[in-house]
Amino acid sequence: MAYKLIAVDMDGTLLNSNKEVSSKNKNALKVATEKGIQVVITTGRIFTSARYYAKLLGLITPIISNNGAYICEYHRNNVLYENPIRNYELKEVIKDIEEEGMYYHFYGNDTFYTKELDYTSKELYEWNKEQKPGDKINIEVLENPLNFIEEKDPDIYKLVVIDENQDKLKYIRQKLSINDNIEIVSSWSNNVEVMNKGVSKGSALKELCKIFNIKREEVIAIGDHQNDLSMIEFAGTGIAMGNAEDEIKKKAKYITDTNDNDGVAKALKELVF
């Protein structure tokens, strides 16, 4: 098969447990691009975070961020697709979460909003200290997110609830799932992620293939978690990481090594090189 596009997830896939890209993975993506294959970063992260890694890898690539709600060619700031959460729905989701007293944050393409610096927002706050001005992620701590949304009417692509209590996470997911106008997935064991209805990595990848005139049979998608399932099912060749959830492994055509053992590089060596 002559592949034309490789969609690769970041956390748990391209990045190892230290949030680093190994030299073998970096070189494999470089070789793929030299062969004329379009490499696409596909992540649940905010766009500016994904852009940092694209620049680090030296990739000229469209970035699918926010679980598929925002696609942009970062090198020329060209937005190819966006699908924000309707602000009415966002406010209803926030009300439900605040009733349970749970941590949450939400973001657009370049700004991260939270009521408190904890979990991911705290990690990004510390990460910013080591970054150049152009690579930092804007973080805004809001006293009243509902008022902010009402007054500013921002474009928000994703909201994340985080809690270590699995029972609380299960309950809030069930509570939010009553709303038919939102999409709910998870990218880690301790979170629940909310996007606009119809948003997914798979739907974004389908949109990108239309733009580039690429057939799904010519696509490889590599991931490890529930939010990667849609793109693994869409791609002609779906690959699960060795550290992937069982559900992802069952749906994938191939299973590669773990993210700490250069699983991306090994998969591409086997199937592409």
From TrEMBL:
GO terms for molecular function: magnesium ion binding; phosphatase activity. GO terms for cellular component: cytosol. PROSITE patterns: COF_1 (PS01228). It comes from the Bacteria. Gene3D superfamilies: 3.30.1240.10, HAD superfamily/HAD-like. CDD domains: HAD_Pase. It holds the Pfam family Hydrolase_3. InterPro entries: Cof, HAD-like_sf, HAD-SF_hydro_IIB, HAD_sf. SUPFAM superfamilies: HAD-like. PANTHER family: HAD SUPERFAMILY HYDROLASE-LIKE, TYPE 3, PHOSPHOSERINE PHOSPHATASE. This is Haloacid dehalogenase.
